[in-house]
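Illustration: Syntaxin-binding protein 5-like.
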Amino acid sequence: MKKFNIRKVLDGLKEQASSSASSGQSGTQENNLMQETLQSENFQLCKTVRHGFPYQPSSMAHDPVQKILAIGTQSGALRLFGRPGVECYCQHESGAAVISLQFLINEGALVSALADDSVHLWNLRQKRPAILHSLKFNRERITFVHLPFQSKWLYIGTEKGNIHIVNVESFTLSGYVIMWNKAIELSSKAHPGPVVHISDNPMDEGKLIIGYESGIVVLWDLKSKKADYRYTYDEAIHSVAWHHEGKQFICSHSDGTLTIWNIKGQGKPFQTITPHGKQPKDGKKPEPCKPILKVEYKTTRLGDPFMILSGGLSYDTVGRRPCLTVMHGKSTAVLEMDYPIVDFLTLCETPYPNDFQEPYAVVVLLEKDLVVIDLAQNGYPIFENPYPLTIHESPVTCCEYYADCPVDLIPALYSVGSRQKRQGYSKKEWPISGGNWGLGTQSYPEIIITGHADGTVKFWDASAIMLQVLYKLKTAKVFEKSRNNKEEKQNTEIVDEDPFAIQIMAWCPESRMLCVAGVSANLIIYRFSKQEITTEVVQLLEVRLQYEVNDMESPPEGGGGGDRDLPTPGAASPSPQTTGPPTHPSTSSNSSDGVRDNVPCLKVRSTPLKQSPGYQVDLVVQLVWVSGEPPQQITSLALNSSYGLIVFGNSNGLAVVDYLQKTVLLNLGTVELYGSNDPYQRQPRSPRKTRQPSGGNGKDCYQVTDLPPNHRDNSFSRSRSSSVTSIDKEAREAITSFHFCETFARKGDSTITPCLYVGTSLGTVLAVALNLPPAGEQRLLQPVIVLPSGTLGRLKGSILRMAFLDNTGTFLPPAFELWYEPNAVGADSEERDKARKRRPVSVSPSTSQELQESQYAVVCSEKQAKVIALPSQNCIFKHSITETSFILRADVVQMNIGNCVACFCANGHIMTLSLPGLRPLLDVNYLPLTDMRIARTFCFTNLGQAMYLTSPTEIQRITYSQETCENLQEMLGELFTPVETPEAPNRGFFKGLFGGGATSLDREELFGEMQAGKASRGLAQHIPGPQGLEGMKGAASGVVADLARARIALDERGQKLGELDERTAAMLASADSFGKHAHDMMLKCKDKKWYQF
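Result:
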């Protein structure tokens, strides 16, 4: 652990000479005792898990033995789902859309085909799946992929109408090719179109059915390499499905018809059905309907077969929602869906296609949802989805992430949230139940809160890298429903859409107090209660927070109090001239000259409000129109349960509200906070009377938010010192951050007091002293005195975050009050009163401490961070975080062994700085800012966790903790679990004796190189995966895996036999040489006498 010499740090600072000298003296004295425990090796950045619905899904597959589901997306992502809590996310590097997925059933492998004509083999036997092989087609476009059960040969249909065959072990092409012209021969004069279906006959693996888009179906004999039968229909084909006995198949067509064919009847279909067509009485052909995009034909042992199809509705059903049709016997059920259907799969009891299928559920993949329908119960109810796929139910506008919450919080939220669940779900267990949970070592509670465009707030349990919804709060219930008359619309015209959208949230986990700010310049304060109540009148405060516009000039060069680091402001800034008194509920609307005044953007409901257990409205605060000027959006918000205060600010100023006494304590413009120490020369001028909006201008004035939740652009460009639109060309000094604390209110103070620190968009930090009455009854009777007490300092860029450390460098959280039941009666009410009289929990040092035992204020702006000693107010550490970009989110977070500043920069860098020394510990170029959504939702929390919305439907969680990265492998769930493959169906005595059972095919002999030859070299390029042979060795049991392992063993055995053969040959050569030498010696010595030697 390294000690810091403050003189070395001060050498790099650009402070004025006098402040440098004083800070050097005090800094050395204070920091020689402080040691920083966090080092660079404590940090590592990695993705942990992705939650939510796969964005823009394109394909789906299911393994009926392993019971896992795979979903591919248009961006090349792959999401795998097992039992609730077992999820996995993978990404194809090319980013091309996934057009088809095929499981190697019960093998722990998956084949994916992409729109860039590449095919990939994924190994699912590891916690983070990886690609083993890839094959890139060069000459033909892939349109369909089929892998028969327990086969290693993959059929690939192309746009040209040809079918190629790939060995999934080696991912090499077979020389066996089914050419389109050989398949159709003279049955059609034109090209049959792309291949839309391939499947083998359930009873005869040697017969392959090929569906072409034009309406031609071919039954191909693989052994004789010719077509047995051809079936022609005059409407385009979308899908084909077999009856399990292999004697019939069914096709779905573009005119909304289904045709059923006998395999030996070529002329006409055995039966033609138009499920949603009106049958004319004169026997004519029914009116055409919309295309049936997919059909599945599933049989049952004891009942009628199921025909399940998507599409096919009549053209006169305009505006009708997408439907899935289930035809069972004589009944036809039409199940309406909320979104368009992407794909569906029928879940069956057996993986064998030649047995009775016994379907029990249908998985329907919609554009924005995943629905599983129970086929075994009357009415076809849906299963309750246990996955966190409803994040996007309404678009997410803001997020907050809390780690290490109180342990009783999640059970409390779950108990009230469980009462909100819908009824009518299937009583069966969720059918996708594969995989095993990880052995997580993280035991601390984590909660994610999401705010949405429709005004809902959702609480999620995010503990141990899982996600589960706990509780849902609807804030729009507080307001009257908008009527579509002109007068009503004028009041809310400052918002184009989503007037109830959540903009900012402040939450105190200990007291369970919640405050949300909406885009319509409103605040709602909630208390948590386990009891149901009816509120007769919702308490309301209306606040006038609008000020006239004044000119502003930058301070003169070298002027007193000017900071060289302060950016030059613009030409004008809002400045308060007068501030009206805090107003209580007002009925005034338009003044005599037609200018709107004292009108809130939303109308609070006047009827009694029934409030269920959970979060219940305590107070509503609304900003109102002032002399025709609309209220500005709220840009910052803070809540303190110990003080009973809420503070909020916007581009005009701030207001402090006492939610216990339901009063406005302070209503000030930003400039009034400075008092006589204002660094800018602001010249007042007359207000612009012509700037009273009559229509569109009101809306333009309203769009001034720092990060608007309904912003639709992908670009990110905003002024570094302004949060107002460029229409007015004004550099308004907005309030950007707050922090409640118990600290020194003024320079040189000897005691600590409750304070509010305020940060502005021009980089100024201001202090506000709070004089609170004693706890208990006095707190409700005596007024709270709020007094601005000067400037703490200035930084470059908007202030993002403030925090406080004690003299040992320990983090000082704001004081808080413990939760109590607000609606308690009888004995419970006595407990409540005792709780309210207790001294609030505070970890700040005692007021009797000596002056030298100081605190440290940590302030982070868009450009730099500073650590300021209190009460001397000397800057002892300063670090310029970025010069060319700006910080979007900064948080002071607690790690296991210390504290740090975590920053996310607009250029994509994630950085951490030590405290109090501000040494860079981590700097990773992680994610370039491509979307406003990421900037709006990125947040850090304690213990090295962070999150953001990576797509409109998905949350990506990451960690910057080395310890979590090391334990991540254990925490992740396993998708593949060893399961015995069910036994094949019994052929029966008579079928075995007289034939008629399933016929097998030696595909190895047929498609292998010996028989089929080699494929054309330029057709496709083989790309080995990053794991190569090691990945193949990692595959354990199973048919393909056994074959792969046997092949590796044979290779190794062959290599050893080769080495043995070489050694034997060498020994033989040595023996020959020895024999030759011995023979020569014998001939030489043959005629010699013994004495001649």
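Reading the tokens back as a structure: The longest strand covers residues 43-52.
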